[in-house]
Design a protein that fits this description.
alpha+beta, 5-stranded antiparallel sheet, 1 helix, 5 strands
Length: 79
């Protein structure tokens, strides 16, 4: 799973086999896991994170959405 970024103890990754799904990012670290969609940035699921951590994750995803979407489109093709 290619790593996109590591920030605030969270690791943000994309999966090569996820191209059939809506663009998204997987998050691990700080004792939890999550998945967030792009366009718009929304939480798809989360395990082990408290609300403040989820808020932080979503802010980070929003900050990087443009660059991570470009990476997604390079790998999976644009829509």
């Amino acid at each position: 799973m290619p790593m996109l970024s590591e920030e605030a103890g969270f690791v943000f990754r994309s999966r090569m086999g996820d191209c059939a799904e809506r663009p998204h990012v997987h998050i691990t670290g700080n004792d939890g896991t999550a998945k967030a969609w792009f366009r718009p940035v929304v939480l798809e699921r989360s395990r082990g994170y408290a609300d403040p951590q989820i808020g932080r994750i979503l802010r980070i995803v929003q900050e990087h959405e443009g660059e991570w979407l470009l990476e997604w489109e390079k790998r999976c093709g644009g829509d």
